[in-house]
Structures are given as C-alpha cells and as structure tokens.
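Worked example

This section walks through a single chain of length 547. The input is the sequence exactly as stored; nothing has been trimmed or padded.
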Amino acid sequence: MGDHLASLFVYPLAPWLVPLPDAETMRAIDRWAIEERGVAGLDLMERAGAGVARAVERLAPDGPVTVVCGKGNNGGDGLVAARLLREARRSVTVVCVAPPQEFAGDARANLERLPGDQPVQLGSADPFAAHAIIVDAVLGTGFQGQPRGPAADALDAINTAGAAGAAVVSVDVPSGVDASTGVVSGAAVRASVTVTFHAAKPGLWIAPGKTCAGTVETIDIGIPRGAPGGASVGLIAASVLEQLPSRQASSTKFSSGHVLVAGGSRGLTGAPRMAAESSMRTGAGYVTACVPASLQGILAGAGTPELMTRGLPDDDGALTAEGVGEVLEASARGGALALGPGLGRRDGAAAFARALAREAGVAMVLDADGLNAHAGRLTELASRDAPTVLTPHAGELGRLLELDSSEIERERLRYVRAAAAQASAVVVLKGDDTLIAAADGKVAVSPGGSPALATAGTGDVLTGVIAALLAQGLDAFTAAAAGVWLHAEAGREAARRLGAAEGVIASDVIAALPHARGRARRGRERGSRAARIRAGGGRPSEVRGDA
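Given that input, the structure is written out below as tokens.
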C-alpha cells in the first residue's frame, strides 16, 4: 500500500463498530479494486446501478420512473439503473443535469448504452410529469459545499416531486449531503431510500445528512476482500454489549462498582435520583447520591431504599465548594463519579463542579450544569488524570466551545471531535445520531431510532448508565458507546411495553434497562450454545428453540 493509502487508515476501530469510510477512503478503495485487483470500473458501475434498479422495483413495482443524472460516476450509476429498468419494460425518463457531450469515462459509456428515448435536459417541458418514483443520481460522495446552477435546480425539482408524493431513491448519498460529515450547506435531496455501495458513509448516519437519507441500504458491488479499508468513524452494533461484565457467584457490591452522583438543588432533586437509579439498574453494586444537606431527606424518602445519600454543605439548597472534600473522601474506594445532574447554575454550585472535576481521581461523567460550569473553560478538563466523559446536547456543547448551538448542529462531527481533543476526554454529543468522540479523533455513531427518549430526564438516565459502566471497569470510549446503545434500546423497550413512544417517561426507561442489558447475556449464551453444537456437544433443536 502506498504512503497515501497508509495515511488514511490510522484509526483501528473496535470490532463492535461497523466502519463508515469517508469519501477519500472510498476513492482509495475504488482505485485499489480497479488498479491493483483488475476489477473493471464498468463492472462496479453495473452492479451499483443494478442495486439501484432493485430498490426502485421494491419501492414502486409499477409506474413511470424519472432518473436525474449528473455527469460523473454517480450519474453513470443512474444511467445503468435506467437501462435495466427500461429492459424490464418500465417507463423511464432520463433527465441530464449537464449536456450529454460533457459525460466522460464510464458514465459516457453507459449513456451510449441507454436504449429507447434519449435523455432530456433539465428545464425541458415537465420531465417529472406523472412520476411514481425519482432516482437522484446528481451528485456523488465526492461532493462538498453548496450545489449551484443546474445541479441546485435539479435538487429543488426532485424535492418538489417528493413533496407531491413521489418516492425518491438516492444513489450512494443524497445529492447535496457531504458524505464524509453529514454537513448540508445548501439544497439537498430528501430521499425515501439511499442505496449506498460497499459500505455506508458517515454522512448517511450523522445529522443533518441523516435526516435526508431515509432508509439506508448497503449493497455489495464486488469490491474484493482485503480492500485497504479503514475508517475513523463507525456505527455502533449490538455486539458492543458483549463488552459488558457479568456478575459472578463471587461478586460483591464492591466488585460490581461504586457510583457517586453529585448534584441536586432546590426544585431539581429528581435529576440526581434518576441518574442514581439508572446506575443501579445498569449493574452498579452500590450508589451514593451526594446532594445538598437541606434536600437530603427528599431523596432519602423518594421510594428507593437501596439508594444511599450523603448530605453536603449547601447555601439555600445549592451545593458549594465546601462540599468537595466530602465527595473526594467518599470516592477514596474508587468507582465512578456522575457530576452535574440537577446541580443548578448558582455561582457556588459552579465552583463546586469545577473544583470537584479538577480534583477527583476517579472516572467521571460530566453532564448538565456540571458542563455549564465549564462554559468557555473546556481545556481545564484536560489536566485530569482519570477518564472523563462529557455528555452535552448541542446547546451545552455550544456553551463549552463558545459557539451558537446552530453552528454545532450544522457540523456535529467537526465540533464533537474538537471538544474531545480540547478536553482530552470522550465527548458524547446527544441526538438521534448521538456521536461519541475520543480525543484521538475516532468516533462512534449511534444508529438512533429511539424517539421515546425525547422526554425530560432521559439525559440524567444516560449519565447514570455510563457512570455504572465506568465503575464496572470499562474504558471511557467503550463505556460511553455501550451506554448510548443500552439507553436507546431501553427507550425502545419502554415504548414496546407501553404501546407508544409518546407515553414514555424517564422512569420507564430506567425500568427497561435490565432488559436492554440482558441482550448481552442472551447473545453470549446463544453464541456459547451454538459453539457447543458445532463441537458436537448439543442438539440442533436447542438452537432452533432459542432463536
């Protein structure tokens, strides 16, 4: 492999991450397949177009199709799909964004192979008339920036057709979306389905690009095994739960991990309680809530007798820096600290958060007003020796980096990486596409799909989950990724139990955490049973019954 390729693949991903190669990496993989393994570019394009045609047939088995093509390889993939659909006797209109004479290479070859009516130019009289489905093959994975001219007009026309009821299939990436980052700088197609090749790209799973992609289908186009693959971004798979430790017969509450939750203030006692209960439901052996002394009775009588509480010096229901020493004393046995739930924004509470974050020698999750206490002070966290996980939403990350939250949302990947590097920490940028960034630049992306979590208190639940996993010995990056996956699965389970995502509250998510965590054990048991059967130690019916 040449120096250029070697420089691209410097982030070995954990086996529980599905690699999401960026555009540069995919170009290198394509070159390798063509130049070193002798795979014809036309063959790759043929398989890509065939995959798009199959998606069209599944989505709309009947009715006219409009294929909108740019002049690059993305357009060539669309032309293959158009040819195959015409050969299947579908009515297909091909609309070219550029004049046909500007097509070159493999795209030109497929333009010449196109049977039936010749392509029409964008702007011709109503080329989208009577459409059942639109194929977006305008801009490919190499696109960056803002679409202009005829390309922008094409994207607007596709979206107009989609708004009128046409299904839209995007080729490799929705046109207008940066495949490597998910950034959308101007017009972008909103697809029903995106058919992507060889591997999904980061921009299909990271907002705002994720909101444009619809359902993502990844197809094999014949890249040989052994491709110089590699990625700095990966999609979290359920197998991350295999990293979770299990209690053994010899386990004790101490070996199961101790979590300290430091927070709470007048009117905000529910947040530390939910974080603490989440830690317990995620397997922590014992949990102590360190809260304002004047509010300790509220938590002690909150209906969770297993929760230990410790009252700290306070000023009218808000923690002060005088309480830091007591939390440090309580952390002497190790474990993990969850700092910030319900802390409030009083000056004393902020001073408490900064001092405790600086001095605590245990792994820490920093959330909510613990994060706000560090607004504009993110680099102070880099001096910590113990593992650190930050769990901001876009507004909190904006305050940490002194940026508007809209800027964070526009370039989520860029800013979560910047924050992780500045803090020398793992940063969890929350959202349906929750991003977990390590200081070295690698990023795990949550598949999301858990709308039940869009309710008050679920951020405190996530804090408690990650703290419990840290206390059980997982490294910060794995704990954060596994915690995000558990949290999302618990949200889905809570919605299943109640019948609707809209009725779920944070305590329902807490109650569902053991079921979500149980997936790891059930998966390991199935794998062990299958291994015994392969070795002749069990009956096939055992596997069939467990499937």
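What to look for: The chain has a mean pLDDT of 90.
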